[in-house]
Amino acid sequence: MRTAFGQEFDVPEGYLNTASIGIPPADAGAAVAAAVAGWRAGAGSPGDFDEPVARARAGFADLVGVAAERVAIGPAASALVGLVAAAVPDGTRVLAAEGEFTSVTWPFAAQAGRGVTVTEVDLADVGARAGEFDLVAVSVVQSADGRVVDLDALRAARDGGTRVLLDATQSLGWLDVDVSWADAVVAAGYKWLLSPRGVAWMAVRPDLPTHANAAGWYAGADPWTAIYGLPMDLATDARGLDTSPAWYCQAGAAVALPWLAGLDRAAVHAHCAGLADTVRAGLGMEPAGSAIVAVRRPDAAERLAAAGVVSANRAGAARLAFHLYNTEADAARALDALT
After folding, report:
1. Looking at the predicted structure, is the pLDDT value of residue 44 above 90?
2. CATH numbers and ranges of domains, the chain
3. Which of 9, 11, 127, 199 is most buried, by CB atoms within 10 Å?
4. How many angstroms separate the CA atoms of 166 and 320, rounded?
5. DSSP secondary structure code for residue 240 in this structure
6. Whole-number Å distance between alpha carbons of 51 and 55
7. 175 three-class SS
8. Once rounded to an integer, what is the mean pLDDT over residues 191-200?
9. pLDDT tens digits for range 47-101
10. φ, ψ for residue 181 (rounded to 5)?
């Protein structure tokens, strides 16, 4: 058991795979276990989960820097991005990064029948090209290699009229940046937000067109009176985009997200990126200020696995990811394996 930033984590030595699956704080895991135990014993009631859903929503809002009324809940990032993609006008021109995670690009590519086009450019060119397009859809931090998009350039493009949708799945929870200005900020919970898989959130600006094409009872102005019949009475804020919550997943998120939101973001960023840059320096790479390191060396994945380092293979590289529960010993183990 490790202690980090005031929480305990049952994380093994050499676990450097948060970019795939985050390890929850012990309290968050216990909350999920208690919720499942109540389910097994027939002691749970649907209304019991309204409070955890609200707490997780508020935690996400605090992490992004917006009001909770601007946050919608969903099961995965692509499902929430799809609510935006379904509402863009016919012929919308979308800009994306080459090799972008498909949960960001495919919801827009699926609108090709309406004349929606998606143009891919190198990540380094996204900021400079943004003003040529109607909407930019891009990850703040690239999943495959940890590169960070030029947020200042995107913010300037937005001031010029380009809509900006950011996927913060690989950044929110460790990266100390302001994304509250974006038209939409989406993130899945099961990586850096240390929540169970099955929960995601999206912060949307009130003037961003969206399409509630997955509307159900939980999107109602009063969900508990919106269970049967018509007419449809959607909530007038972002809750009108909600899908029915994954209760047991939300129980864990209700612990993890408010805790993350209360941390010193700069200290978390310095810790995570500092460990990653230690590995970069040991491998002769330039510092990047990112918590994700892509190692493109022969047999890197095999060497890491043999040393007990848990990593991932992405885009032809061994991917290492350092979160707040990782230590200098984890970085040293990875370097020993690779050098």
Report:
1. no
2. 2-26+265-338 (3.90.1150.10), 31-261 (3.40.640.10)
3. 199
4. 22
5. G
6. 6
7. coil
8. 98
9. 999 999 999 999 999 999 999 999 999 999 999 999 999 999 999 999 999 999 9
10. -75, -20
CA of residue 44 relative to chain centroid, distance:
29
Which structure tokens are listed for 219? Answer: 């999107």
Distance between CA atoms of 65 and 168, rounded to whole angstroms?
Answer: 13
Backbone dihedral region of 39: left (phi > 0), alpha (psi from -120 to 50 degrees) or beta?
A: alpha
**Contacts within 8 Å (CB) and 24+ apart, 277-283:** 278/328, 278/331, 278/335, 279/320, 279/322, 279/331, 279/334, 279/335, 282/331, 282/335, 282/338, 282/339, 283/335, 283/338, 283/339
Residue 110's contacts (CB-CB under 8 Å, 6 or more residues apart) are: 82, 85
- Which residue is associated with the tokens 């002769």? 284
Nearest partner of 23 among 252, 201, 258, judged by Cα: 252
Q: What is the pLDDT of residues 230-246, one digit of tens each?
A: 999 999 999 999 999 99
Q: Is the dihedral of CA 139, 143, 144, 150 positive or negative?
A: positive
Of the chain, the percentage scoring pLDDT greater than 90 comes to: 99
State which amino acid sits at residue 138.
V
pTM over 0.90: yes
The residue type found at 157 is: A
Q: Using one digit for the tens of pLDDT, what is the confidence trace for 278-331?
A: 999 999 999 999 999 999 998 999 999 999 999 999 999 999 999 999 999 999
Distance CA 211, CA 323 (A): 35
Q: Are 300 and 309 in contact, with CB atoms under 8 Å apart?
A: no
Q: Are 168 and 147 in contact (CB under 8 A)?
A: no
Q: What radius of gyration, in Å, describes the C-alpha atoms of the chain?
A: 20
* Interacting residues of 207 by C-beta distance below 8 A, sequence separation 6+: none
